[in-house]
Amino acid sequence: MQRVAVVRFPGSNCDEDTLRAAARVGADAYYVWHRDADLRGADVVLIPGGFSYGDYLRSGAIARFSPVMNAVREHAEQGGAVLGICNGFQILCEAHLLPGALLRNARLTFVSKPVLVSVERTGTPFTSAYQRGALLRLPVAHGDGRYVADPETLAELEAEGRVVLRYARDEDANPNGSMHDIAGIVNAAGNVVGIMPHPERAAEPLLGNEDGAGFFTSMAAWAGPAAATHSPDTGP
Amino acid sequence: MSYRVHVRVMPRSGLLDPQGQAVEHALTSLGFTEGTQVRIGRAIELELQAPTAEAATAQARDMCERLLANPVTEDYVLEVEGR
After folding, report:
1. Whole-angstrom distance, CA of residue A31 vs CA of residue B18
2. N or C: which end of chain B has fewer CB within 10 A?
3. Model-level pTM?
């Protein structure tokens, strides 16, 4: 059984949904407070959405310095799986566990709606349950979701197949002006994933949408660092 | 010595600045000349203790690199004032 730590910051607000989605696939899921320096033997770390520290200065900028983030960094360096959702993605970027940054949406409005995204990479601990190219309808809810990186970083992400989710192009789906329609990426080692959409809000029949459930079933099936996929999947 | 440091953090030029654009449009609709360009950043004031102005600058620069500015998307300028 996977031990899954859900990190809580002051201002996290998707922590309960995320814990529930993890528990639903049979994981031994528990909360870790941001002041804790110990992940208590976690196999997987989930950093949920919300507004940690009120988004002061920049989204995720202050959370990055919480004691728990040292433990998350160590966990990631040892090959442990990490998924940052929304504010979690912003925190992972600020902590330099993922490249780039998430800036104010291009149209300035807070966007809260379901959007269509395609799964671009299945070789991660959180997307193995999907077919490459699968279209998912997932909720987004963010004001700062415009993914930005320098041209070298973008080229590297594309060349290495590290874009995990992309806003679908066939219906004006890019809600925030993200470069290359990026909705989610993975680090070079393949174990740290950040996504703007909220799969935990679309993970069971009660919610009327199960498109996000695959993130959690993938996680439950993930066999640990030894089995982490280090090569990009460039299959058909 | 006590120093006051004015930090100005600006979105890197070339990056879309939607706030600047929105204000630009508002200025145009107020009747100000078209073509006015606006960029919006953040001003931070620090009061800090340091032996010299150079040390104060170095300290403030370190703060910018590590927290106050995002090196991926923002540039900053410092102005140090002795008190």
Report:
1. 36
2. C
3. 0.90
